[in-house]
Structure formats: structure tokens, C-alpha cells
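Side project, low priority. Logging it here so it doesn't get lost.
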Amino acid sequence: MAIQLLAAPLAFAGRLVVGGAARGAAGRAMAGGIDRGAIAKATAGSMSINVTSNLPEFAKAIDAFGKNQMPFAYAMAINDTAKDVREQIIERSWPSDVTVRNKRFMQAALTPISKRNADVYATKKNLRAVVGNTRIKMQRDYLQRLTQGGVKTPRGRHLAIPSNQNTVQRTSGGAVRKADRPRQLLNRKGVFIQRLVKSGDMAIMRRVGKDRYPVQMLYLLEPSGQIKKQFGFYDDANTTARRAFGNNFARAFKRAKATAKRKGTSRR
């Protein structure tokens, strides 16, 4: 799950590229924990969004001195826009779209846009910033499914879906507590698998009390599960980037020119 902001140097053209980052292979040595393969795959077969459509007119009005500062201004504007997108996802999109069980998760999942994380940070020679879960330890397959929808398949024979009768306990990270997982439950007395009469589906049941009935359904066992699109990561990134880039570029260009003038004055 990643978005990438790009700009062509001195060509006054920019785009926001949206794509899916693949899980890094376990055990691969990646500098700084960043999966470069995931970042590369995030740009393939993706959607392009023009975020600098007003810059050709701006380019005609600037002087040669200003044009020399364009790479610096581009890099600053791209990074500032990537930070805006990251903040939008963490502070607003994620909490409003999903049930948040760990408030710190998305903050940790999206790689910070900073010089320390060179693979996601734009420079004058590499006009690209990436917003996504690019660090190997923070990659989660289910995040991509939440952004697009899709089918979840089981690792074994069945996918265990908690029933509305099952008040499972979860960890701070949102995972089902180990003691409440199907394999552990089936080792307990009074817990068994049964085929439901009406639907024919298999389910994990638990007797309530010492008698045969009543019983409580804990998990429904399905061959697969349909995941609905519910996390507007790409849509919100698109909207935020379009809204923020123009103002960010104007401020960045002003800062770039001011910095260049100060350096020029100090050399005299």
C-alpha cells in the first residue's frame, strides 16, 4: 500500500502515482528496513494524477535565476505534499473508515517523510516521495485489501470468521488473542465443529452450561471471505495532493529563492 509523488525536473510536469506495495521477502537485507522492491512495485501499473497543471503559466513569469531554483522548490513541495497526505491518512481517513483498535498503528505503519528515510524522501536529483507502509516490519496484506476490496483466502482449509455471538478478546494491535483463536478453542471441553442445518456451512460451536443445549456459535468456517472496500487511502491521497501541491510549491519556490540569494550575498 503506497502512493508516490513524482515530478519531472525543469519540465513543469508532476504526477501522483498510486499503486500497491508487495510484501518483502522475509530475511532479505534491506538498508534501513525499507523494502525497495515494494517501492518499485508501487509505481507499476498505477494511476497518474496531474498535480501541477497551473505551472506552465507560472514558468513563463519567472526569470533565469528562478528557474535554477526549480529542482529545490520541486523537492520541497513534493515532500510537503507527501507530509500532508500522510497526515490526512493518519488523522482523518484511517479513523473514519475503519474500526481503530490501536491508535498508534497507522502512525507507525506509514514511513515518515524525512531525510533519514532516503527512499521515500524527495531531493533535487530524485524528485519523488513515497507515502506508504514501505518498511518490511510494518507491511500488512490486509491493508491493500481494505483499500480495494477483494477475496481473503485461508492459510488452511477454512477461513474462521467470528460470529456476532462471539465476544473475542483482541490485543492492542487488533489481533484476536491467542486463547480465543479457533485452534486453541477446539482444545477445550464443550467446543466442537458442527454443520449448520439450514445453510450447510461448518461452524465452531460451544455448549453453554453442562447440557447439550443451548449452544453458542463462535466462528463460521468458510472457504473464503469477501472483503469490502472501506479504506479510502488512494482517493483521499488524490484529493489531498491536488489540494495541497499548489500552495506548497508557491511557498517552496519562495524559500528556495530566498535561500539562494542569502548564499549569493555571503559569497561576495
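Brief comment: Residues 154-223 form one domain.
Revisit when time allows.
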